[in-house]
Amino acid sequence: MSIRRCLKQMVCVLAFLSAPVFADYQLTEVASGLDHPWSVAFLPNGDHLVTERPGQLLRVAKDGTVTTITGVPTTYFAGQGGFFDVLTQTTNTGTRVYLSYAKGKPEANGTAVYAADLVGTELKNGRDIFWAKTLKDTPQHYGGRMVFGQNETLFITTGDGFDYRESAQDKRSELGKVVRINLDGSLPDDNPFRGELSERIWTYGHRNPQGLAIDSADGALYLHEHGPKGGDEINRIERGNNYGWPLATYGVNYSGARVSPYTEYSGTQQPIHHWTPSIGPSGFAIYRGDMFPEWQGNLFVGALVNREVRRLTLKNGRIDSEQAAFPEIRDRIRDIRVSPEGALYVVTDGENGRIIKVTKN
What we know:
- This protein is mainly beta.
- The chain has a single domain (5-345), classed as Neuraminidase, CATH 2.120.10.30.
- It has strands at 5-6, 14-17, 24-34, 37-42, 48-52, 56-60, 65-68, 83-91, 94-105, 108-119, 122-131, 146-149, 153-157, 177-182, 201-204, 208-214, 221-226, 232-237, 273-275, 281-286, 299-303, 308-315, 318-325, 333-338, 344-348, 353-360.
- A hairpin with a 2-residue loop joins strand 22 and strand 23.
């Protein structure tokens, strides 16, 4: 194995006593100089896995050493395509890695998920367990977020392909959906749709969902997605539901033209929260850790456009309050995760992306 580069822990640690609604926290830069990082996952020994959108999977050791993982799939790197999310699962024999990515070629590409065993700095015994059966000829709107469900299942978001927004309403298409599969790629027997429809679909009517999280307190599944010009949404995801795109939206086209005359439409679900103008949401965490008891049940959402983290509270199934968090980061936020010890990890986007750890001061 070859070490691609070594990164030192941040020389200085930023700390301050925040406003009363926040904890006394500190920010530590775990890694920097990353090429458009997209996601971070945690390993049992305290190391991290990080995806870089151009097609690299990195292992970041506790001392900051970064090594490139071999055995990864070849990705379609164009536009918004590349490597996306990464999840890890501890098994009886080691660690299983799940990697979402763009697969295909310019005229036929789509969201895929690759599963493999992690052995040191190599992926072995890997194969695709999902590839959207509806391919497209655009390099945009892949979705690409994943979260583990109950009973050894996996939820995956797919985007509408940008030029194919009507496909989000077509249950024969896997564009603009949340799909649900077993961890081996097989079909769960309790998915909502059967027959000529795509049996992997869990929900439909989505535009470009780049945030997906399960509340470990009650098992509720939440998603956020990019609207067009305005109309970013947070939705509570429930089996078989239609979330409206493009029949109903609070946003408009980038040209200013209306996507739809409706913000509500019969048979579709209303978001529990929406943003107009857009914040560009990416990355989603629901805090249930032990390190910050004052954040219990809070939602943390990354904002690409606003270059900040948003902290939101829930009350009676609706967003009750919202504020910017960690203002000193001042960067495009791509992902947010809660580590096993209860720290928050924030991934910033760009050619010099960073991984920032939020801990108790």
